[in-house]
């Protein structure tokens, strides 16, 4: 049955499945892991969940609503990055700054916990050891009316590239992927501190009580620009951190990356954690499909099954060519081929020629979301059916 994202958020909220920690000395934690294709609605689901757990009241300010931590939920998603924005210094083009909307939690992580060096180290580890963030100290500037305005410490970050021999390239504007990594490193460092604080069982003995009502941590796709090695490392470290939690925190993690999903699955598989697939139907409603088996997510087999269902029901769309190309890419990598095109030569009685490769490429790289669900011609449907059968027969897909 298809439902709304709010309904799915309620399902996640109601879930009580526990993950048993590997060591007897560790406490149980609640973990729910969700796989979904890009564009399915993972970020919207995190917002629906936040609205359900901590709905905005008339007393909330706009800034408080934008903070990554509320009284009951701590979340990382695309909106978390909105706390950070660029001052491109368009007038002078001298100093590019990544600014932070100041809030109580970033002040706590930087000023009280002194996590700036830790964040810098994490960022350089995942990106480039020579790419260096610099946090500002407090300073005073004059506004347009000539009045003194205090710029708080740790509200601006500049980036430089350290070349060695005291050489430095200043005024660096980092890429969107690097920016996402930087925001994740801040989130992760804060999460480490939050778990450490809440692991103190007696609230009166905690160094801060601002997390006492925290119930949920929602993490949406923190691996958008990582290579496989760093992605695996991040997943393992995140799982270890979650297992270290001794409080009643509940964790929800969504991702479009099958490798990240599978690594987390393997890290948590000792216990009864909950895992799902999130699917969006053409009517804009959703299905949350539970994974009850103990094996990791066989991504290529899932894509094969989706194409087969679409063939059986005559519902093939252009995005199914994208699914098929993904199967080709993963199979060719596994078998050691340089390109997926060589697979077609082995699965077809004749040379596939440029037409077959071209239709796969064109149909799997649409610029607009509307193109993804465009109807296929009968000839295109027959081509995809023929190609899928060839791959299945040649490489003995089950």
Features:
398 residues; alpha/beta; Rossmann fold
Structural features, described:
There is one protein chain. α1 (5-14) packs across α2, α5 crosses α6 (176-198) and α10 (319-335) crosses α12 (353-363). Residues 17-27, 59-68 and 365-373 have low confidence and may be disordered. The protein folds into 2 domains: 5-158 and 172-290, Rossmann fold (3-Layer(aba) Sandwich), CATH 3.40.50; 299-395, no CATH class. The protein has 14 helices and 13 strands. The strands form 3 sheets. A 6-stranded mixed beta sheet has the order 2-10-11-1-12-13, sandwiched between helices. Strands 3, 4, 5, 8 and 9 form a 5-stranded antiparallel beta sheet that branches. A hairpin with a 5-residue loop joins β6 (139-142) and β7 (148-151). It has 398 residues and is α/β, with parallel strands linked by helices. Helices cover 42% and strands 17% of the residues.
Strand content: 15-25%
Shape: globular
CATH topology of the largest domain, by name, is Rossmann fold
Helix-strand sequence: HEHHEEEHHEEEEEHEHEHEEHHHHHH
Total domain count: 2
Major β-sheet strand ordering: 2-10-11-1-12-13
Low-confidence spans: 17-27, 59-68, 365-373
Helix proportion range: 40-55%
What's the helix count? 14
Give the termini distance in whole angstroms: 27 Å
How many β-strand stretches?
13
- The CATH architecture of the largest domain: 3-Layer(aba) Sandwich
